[in-house]
Amino acid sequence: MAENSCPQCGAPNAVGANECKYCGESLASANRNQQFNAHAPNNTPNNVTHVTYVNNGFPNDGINPSWPIKSKIAAGVLAILLGSLGVHKFYLGKIGMGIVYLLLSWTGIPAVIGLIEGIIYLTSNDHNFCVKNQVRLQ
Description:
Blueprint (H helix, E strand, L loop, with lengths): L2 E3 L6 E3 L13 H5 L21 E2 L2 E2 L9 E2 L1 H11 L4 H5 L3 H9 L5 H15 L2 H8 L2 E2 L1
Parallel strand pairs: 5-6
Antiparallel strand pairs: 1-2, 3-4
Helix pairs in contact: 2-5
């Protein structure tokens, strides 16, 4: 089965997909570059370079081995308990969003969003959590 790698997260997607099924990045620009040439042998795409990261002989499904190791449960609990201060964003390495949460903490909006994000973190599957937050699980 042919696959198309996401330019944002590197996750494998179907060749005809319009957006990444893991991070939601638009694949339209990547698909435009995969026009088939009728004169090329075996009908191979023109000017397409496929890069697959391999770790110990197994494909990593879009998870970069250099990403930091974090705990999904810790991120979810931090989001639920201290989401109003953005502690979960700092934990996941999203410093800019953590500062935004901290600056807006007096409004109460980050507390509600943190609660929702905590529930999403705890209920999402491991692969989607890793690719979306660019972390590896413990």
